[in-house]
Write a structure and sequence with these properties.
The chain is α+β, with helices and mostly antiparallel strands and about 130 residues long. Helix content is about 35%, strand content about 20%. The structure holds zinc ion. Zinc ion binds next to loops.
Length: about 130
């Protein structure tokens, strides 16, 4: 039986987070379309927690401005309070009802490659 190494596990967890981010990017995109008139940067987005638990269903509310400032960093994710995993990420910021974590080790390379905003064919979300 091949052993699941710590690194493989880290890779899997990072991919889970990248999938949650994709969903949130869609939510953010749809919100800006729906409310093209009067879509303000202080508007709240109801997002899914971007923690590494693929069964997590926690919802976090984040202002568009704050969401955008996190998305500027491919290795950062928004998670429900205490959904961070200190072995693989560190908390770099906090908001009302959420925490911002940054990936450690090799994971930043993985999640950056999966970042829709950093793919060559990525569309700019306005
Ligand atoms: Zn979570």
């Amino acid at each position: 039986m091949p052993q699941i190494t710590g690194l493989a596990r880290e890779d899997k967890l990072a991919r889970n987070q990248a999938i949650f981010r994709e969903v949130n990017e869609r939510i953010r995109e749809l919100a800006s379309r729906d409310l093209a008139s009067g879509f303000g940067s202080s508007r709240m987005l109801d997002l899914i927690c971007e923690c590494s638990d693929d069964g997590c269903t926690a919802v976090i509310s984040v202002a568009v401005d704050d969401y955008e400032s996190v998305r500027a960093f491919p290795a950062r994710f928004l998670v429900y309070p205490r959904h961070d995993l200190p072995q693989i990420e560190q908390i770099v910021g906090r908001g009302r009802g959420y925490e911002i974590v940054e990936k450690l080790g090799d994971a930043p390379t993985i999640v950056a490659a999966l970042d829709p905003r950093h793919r060559t064919n990525a569309q700019v979300i306005g």
